[in-house]
Design goal:
The chain is built from 20 helices and no strands. By secondary structure, it is mainly alpha-helical. Helix 3 packs antiparallel against helix 4, helix 4 runs parallel beside helix 8 and helix 16 crosses helix 17. It starts with a helix and ends in a 5-residue tail after the last helix.
Length: about 400
């Protein structure tokens, strides 16, 4: 049965066209199924919103690449889904930016701006209105023209065939927004997380660089006849990169190579005056006066108390330790704790936690039972997470004692 279907496809499509049509489609379908399984098996846990957004992203990708087949082999179907295809062409860009937005989300008060949905909706609505007011046969003539005007509505012809140009523009805009968002995140994260491997999101930068190299490709559909464009070797290379990108993205998200701030207690983000580093905290005093003792916090911490907690409880042994986690342990808020660390130690949270890890590493190295163990193993025991993270810290830190 499968061979007969394949024979029919080959009869109507050459091998290059077949590969260019189904290579990215199969990759999108596979990643969609993997993401669906991840959501299903994690349904009883607090799964990251990023994974759910990625699920919708792959739906858009499936519609995008599936529409190529309908465009060339089933124009009647393409006429019906024309506006949906336009919508997914744009929303794929918006959804990836939204995915990155939540991946780099560190503030519970920050919400994804809904204005990003405006352009996709307006453009899709405009095309939908044109579809309603343009006769079906006229629309079909436009599709069969493969980008060349063959009669009918000039306006419908221009709007319907603008998908590649629209995708090109939105790719530039949202790739730029992603780079800006990633740059801003990296400036914040060192004071929020002690896991460089996950918090650096270097894999996202790799993904974006690949996306940057693919931005000009949609112009093939504008500069070349559609039949020639869909079978071009350049498009085959483009689709091979797309296949790798989808697998690369899916792998890192399922493996959770990021620090999640999605389920943070909003109390950690209350607008509070940063208390002075004493035991007389005005914020706590005002709460006590108002009779609110439901969320009691310590009025302040001293350096001695802080270091005693670090030595006795060893929170730095957790490679995924976040500032908010340590603040919860110390019964304070992250604003106060960040200010305390910067004031007392003159360094950020990330560097301070790694300093404690280095001190612990030196301590356990002196234990007789550990002298035969590999340094890589000991590095992971003290919370560095990976040997690469440890080597990076050593190369950048001159004085950690």
């Amino acid at each position: 049965m499968l061979f007969s279907i394949f024979d029919v496809l080959v009869r109507f499509m050459n091998i290059a066209t077949l590969a260019n049509t189904f290579m990215p489609l199969s990759a999108a379908v596979t990643c969609f199924l993997i993401t669906s399984l991840a959501i299903y098996y994690e349904r009883h846990r607090n799964i990251s919103p990023s994974v759910k957004i990625l699920w919708f992203y792959f739906i858009c990708c499936m519609v995008n690449w599936g529409s190529v087949f309908f465009y060339f082999q089933a124009p009647d179907v393409f006429v019906v889904i024309n506006s949906l295809v336009m919508f997914t062409f744009i929303m794929a860009q918006v959804l990836f930016y939204k995915f990155l937005f939540f991946l780099t989300h560190t503030d519970a008060k920050e919400h994804f701006p809904r204005i990003h949905y405006l352009a996709p909706l307006l453009i899709t609505l405009f095309l939908t209105i044109l579809m309603i007011t343009t006769p079906f046969e006229s629309q079909k003539t436009t599709i069969l023209g493969r980008g060349e005007y063959q009669g009918g509505s000039h306006l419908f012809h221009i709007v319907s065939n603008s998908k590649m140009a629209v995708r090109f523009v939105f790719s530039i805009i949202y790739t730029a927004l992603c780079f800006i968002r990633l740059h801003q995140y990296r400036k914040r994260i060192e004071n929020l997380s002690a896991n460089y491997d996950k918090s650096s999101l270097r894999w996202v930068k790799t993904f974006l660089l690949l996306s940057l190299s693919l931005i000009p490709i949609p112009l093939i559909g504008i500069l070349l006849p559609r039949d020639m464009a869909v079978s071009s070797t350049l498009l085959t290379a483009h689709n091979a990169v797309i296949l790798f990108q989808y697998a690369f993205l899916c792998f890192h998200v399922i493996k959770q190579n990021f620090i999640s701030f999605d389920h943070i207690n909003t109390l950690d983000y209350e607008e509070e005056e940063i208390p002075t580093l004493t035991h007389d905290c005005p914020t706590t005093r005002s709460r006590e006066e108002n009779g609110d003792d439901s969320q009691k916090r310590k009025p302040g911490i001293t350096r001695e108390e802080f270091e005693a907690h670090m030595k006795t409880q060893g929170p730095f042994l957790n490679p995924d330790l976040r500032l908010i986690d340590l603040a919860a342990q110390l019964k304070t808020n992250r604003t106060y704790l960040s200010h305390f660390i910067n004031s007392e130690y003159g360094i950020n949270f990330n560097r301070l936690i790694n300093r404690f890890r280095m001190q612990e590493l030196e301590r356990i190295k002196k234990i007789e039972a550990n002298k035969q163990r590999a340094e890589k193993e000991l590095v992971e025991i003290v919370g560095f997470g990976s040997y690469r993270n440890y080597k990076r810290y050593v190369s950048q830190e001159d004085n950690w004692l």
